[in-house]
UniProtKB/TrEMBL annotation:
Protein name as catalogued: 5-hydroxyisourate hydrolase
Key word Hydrolase present: yes
Description of how the protein assembles with itself and partners: Homotetramer.
Similarity remark: Belongs to the transthyretin family. 5-hydroxyisourate hydrolase subfamily.
Keywords for the protein's UniProt record, in alphabetical order: Hydrolase, Purine metabolism
Source organism (scientific name): Nesterenkonia aethiopica
EC number: 3.5.2.17
Function description: Catalyzes the hydrolysis of 5-hydroxyisourate (HIU) to 2-oxo-4-hydroxy-4-carboxy-5-ureidoimidazoline (OHCU).
Example of a GO MF term: hydrolase activity
Gene this protein is translated from: uraH
Catalytic reactions on record: 5-hydroxyisourate + H2O = 5-hydroxy-2-oxo-4-ureido-2,5-dihydro-1H-imidazole-5-carboxylate + H(+)
Entry annotated with the keyword Manganese: no
Pfam families per UniProt: Transthyretin
Length: 108
């Protein structure tokens, strides 16, 4: 398992969001990993096995996800900025998604 994992749920469909493109970036914008959610809306391998303490960004391709389903949406991407602290073993970033709103938190 990578140091960063993610899970996307489509609140309007009540199902996992399959096929969402996700990128992991450093604070200076360097891409560290990229993946696409599986049938369960999960990405188990998003980047390296460890990260140095600091700021990072995960970008979820939400507009393309809804467009592929023929749905309008407000957010072309959802960007989650977060800080990695020393001594942490893993970061999980869930996203609860609808065409016009989203919510996220630090998962386990």
């Amino acid at each position: 398992m990578s140091y960063i994992t993610a899970h996307v749920l489509d609140a309007t469909a009540g199902t996992p969001a399959r096929g969402v493109e996700i990128q992991l970036l450093s604070a200076v914008g360097q891409q560290l990993g990229a993946a696409v959610t599986d049938a369960d809306g999960r990405v188990a391998d998003l980047g390296p096995e460890t990260l140095e303490p600091g700021d990072y960004r995960v970008i979820f391709g939400t507009g393309a996800y809804f467009s592929a389903r023929g749905q309008e949406s407000f957010h072309p991407v959802v960007t989650v900025d977060f800080a990695v602290k020393a001594g942490e073993a893993h970061y999980h970033i869930p996203l609860l998604l609808s065409p016009f709103a989203y919510s996220t938190y630090r998962g386990s």
